[in-house]
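Risk register update: the risk of archive-format incompatibility is retired. Evidence:
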Amino acid sequence: MKNLFIILSLLALTACKTSLKADESAQVTLGIIAPISDSVIESASIYEVNLRQYSPEGTINAFTKDIPQLKQLGVDILWVMPFYPISVKDRKGTLGSYYAIQDYTKVNSNFGTLDDFKKLVETAHDNGLYVIIDWVPNHTGRDHVWLSAHPDFYVRDSTGKPLAPFDWTDVAKLDYSNPAMRKAMISAMSYWLKNADVDGFRCDVAGEVPTDFWDEATTQLKQIKPIFMLAEAEKAELMHKAFDMQYGWEAHHIFNSLAQGKDQVKAWDAYIIKQDSLLEKDDILMNFTSNHDENSWNGTVFERMGAAAKTMAALSFATKGMPLIYNGQEYDMNKRLRFFEKDTIPQTKGVFYDFYTQLNGLKATYKALDGGKNAGNYTRLPTSNDASILAFERSKEGDSITFIANLTGKKLSFKTNLTGNYTDVLTKTPLALQNSKALTFEPWEFHFLVKK
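Archived output:
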């Protein structure tokens, strides 16, 4: 993370202000880490933690001991999947879904205690990392404490029973026309800011919840401390006031279709143009090749992307936005984690551990790769084969880096308009370019180039 050591050394002397869509009157007690802010997230990457499956123990403490190692991997934000008690009524599988919550302000005893979770956050902060927690506002489990204490908090079906959204038979949909329910939801979110010092929320199916609730909630929550808000949605209006980042679902699907040979580079080019027209300059997209849903339900990175897996990961770091690593990807995980049962990620370092460390290093080093609210510019560069070759320049404040990739499974020759001596800053190898001389790239070959 750029300037992190400078920031930490100054903390003892001054409080750090944030412009992260925060109320300037927000009060926060500073620890050893600056509050999350626009400058913090410019070069950040995010790591998704599935506590149940991260370790054989499946506990908070087992994960916490690895936080220093994740710092070395180069990630900046930890997104912790739901760690709350899971409903028993209509539970799916043996252990149930993390997203069928029984109580918003308790810790699942299978994972540990509130003190354990506080220690997780404290350890992350001690290592210069931020923690956002998964929040499930659209529905609760079917024996959540509110169902008995506040039955009017729920949408009912024609028979008067709590409505199950979609085909999610283990949960009950909340009623956002009820002001008391809204107040209780904001109170529950506030609990984790006040009692565990978390730095924000990843909000499940955020687009199913009224936008005006999110606007109201974030205004109140940011009076407690600056926070980072991630929406599981692709809904531009959520970004106007409430959220800082949303899912890049469309980019993810293009990654898959390119890797499978179902699309050409023109699909990516059209996507970039579309996002420029839909989003405001300070909106952030989360780029990913996997996450908990994709891995469990649609297949591993290697199932979906095959030999293109590294290339698509590189593209997720090279383009505008914030890249995500789902736990296990750094260990070349090639299995679908079971969703309702105990499973465990591998923890043997292979190709991807060093690869992700290098990619995170590039994000931290080159301002051109900034992906936050003041992201580096993205300029498409022409080639003689734009249907198969993707070339673009990222630039910011005099810093520039060029990404070139063969997005096919075939060996290709092509020309660019680039001339000069370059270095691939990922592999530290030189590359001389002449606009009159063809380049030959192996299938899925890519380079991050800086001109000497």
